[in-house]
Amino acid sequence: MPAPLHRVFLDVDGTLRNGWKVLGYFLLVAAVSLVLSPLYRLLPRPIRAAFPGQWVGALACLAAAWAFLRTEAAPLSALGLRLNGRFLGHLVLGTLGGCALMGASAGLAWSLGGLHWTRTPGVGLAALSSAARLFLAVALFEELLFRGYAFQRAARGLGFAGAQAAFALLFALMHWRNPGMAGATKAWATMNIALAALLLGFCWRRTGSLALPIGVHLGWNWTQGSLLGFGVSGTASQGWWTPAFHGRPEWLTGGAFGLEASLPGALVCGAAVLALWVWKGAGEDATGGASTASGS
After folding, report:
1. Can you give the pLDDT at residue 16?
2. How many independent structural domains does the chain possess?
3. Of 82, 205, 266, 268, whose CB has the highest number of CB atoms within 10 Å?
C-alpha cells in the first residue's frame, strides 16, 4: 500500500524531509540571486571593483540558509559560521594548507620536467591583494553553496558518505561549463575537482566549521592562479610567476586549465583526502558526525 502523500514531504516527526530542504534551498538561492544581481549592477563601479560579483552569490546563500534555519529554530552559526577566534584560526590554517597543497602539486610537476617559471613583469603586491579578495569571495560562495546548508542536510538524510558522493559529483559537473573542459582534460579535471570536493567536505566534518574549507579553497585558488600563474579551473590568470611549459603531456601540468587537470594535482589532493579520512578531528561527536556547536 503506498505511503500517504504527506509522508512524501514529511518525516515521522512531521518535519520537512531533508531532500526537499536541499531542493528548496537551491531554488531559494537562485531566487534571491535574481533579486540581488540587478541591485548589484546599480552600485558605483568602485564598490563593484572592491566587492566582486561572487559576493552576491555568497549573500544569496546566507539569506537562503538563514530562512531555512529559522524554520528549524536554529541560528546561522549552526552551519559552522560562528565568527570567533577558533574560526579565524581555522581560516588561516586552511589558507596555508591550500597554498601548501597547490605548491606541492606545482613542485611535483616541476620536478618531473613539466615546466619552469619566469617572473611576470608588472605584477605586484596590489595585484596579489586584489586577487585574494576575489578568491575569498569565490571560496565563500562555493563553500556556502556546496558545503553549507544543502550539504549538511543531505548528510542528515543520506549519511556523510552519501552526501560526499552526491556533492562531489555535483561540484564536478558544475565546472563542466568552464573553458577547456574537453577530451582528456575534461576527464582529469572532473576527477580532480571531485577529489577537491571530498577534501573540502572532510575539512568541514573534521572541524564542524566552514572556516577550514573556505581557507583551503582560498589558498588553493590564489596560489594556483595569482602566485604561480596557472589557469584556475580553466580561467586564465596572470600570476606573480608565469609557467613556461616544456611540451610534456598536459596530464603532467594541466596545461591551460590548471593543475586541477593534472596527475600531480590528483596525487596531492588524493593524499590529503586520505589523511583527513583517517584523522578524527575535534569537531566530530562520539557518533562520528560533525559537531557544529564545538566547531562553529
Report:
1. 84
2. 1
3. 205
